[in-house]
Amino acid sequence: MKVDRKRIQQYLVEIQANIREIEDLFSDYTDEAILRDRHLMKSLKYSLVEVSEAISLVLQHLLAKHLGVPVKGYIDSVRKASENNLISEGLASSLKPFFDFRNSLVHRYWMIDDKKLLENCKGGYKDFQEFIKEIEVFLEKIQEA
Questions:
Q1: CB neighbours of 66 closer than 8 A, spacing ≥ 6?
Q2: Which of 85, 32, 42 is nearest to 63 (CA)?
Q3: Cα–Cα distance measured from residue 128 to residue 63, given in angstroms and rounded to the nearest whole number
Q4: Domain of 85: which CATH number?
Q5: End-to-end alpha-carbon separation of the chain, Å?
Q6: In this predicted model, what pLDDT tens digit does every residue of 59-84 receive, in sequence order?
Q7: Rounded to whole angstroms, how far apart are CA atoms 110 and 114?
Q8: How many Å apart are CA 140 and CA 145, to the nearest integer?
Q9: Number of domains in the chain
Q10: What is the domain range of residue 71?
């Protein structure tokens, strides 16, 4: 089966756009201001959900179309992507807690500790940029093959 590069690039652009929005939020507001403003927190949470969706779609597509590997959900896609050398083990380890957190955001929205979310995001959102780099490297490798 053939990888749809245009589709993958669209997802990567979506991830990059959300990274910029997260960075803008962090540069324009203090942590306290973000925590006080429920609209800013919802914006951050929505950006994280969009990133998780796009990352998962990239991994599912590459695993299915290039390797013929099925997945069962977000965490399984990260695990299998690492096992099949789509992404590094280190990145998979960094993304796994993010997907655990994503599941809490989507399924138990009311149980999220906003302060913890903000701290985790400030420390970990750069992993999304690393994801883009690793996927671009992978795409170059399979293009050369």
A1: 1, 3, 142
A2: 85
A3: 19
A4: 1.20.120.580
A5: 14
A6: 999 999 999 999 998 889 999 999 99
A7: 10
A8: 9
A9: 1
A10: 5-144
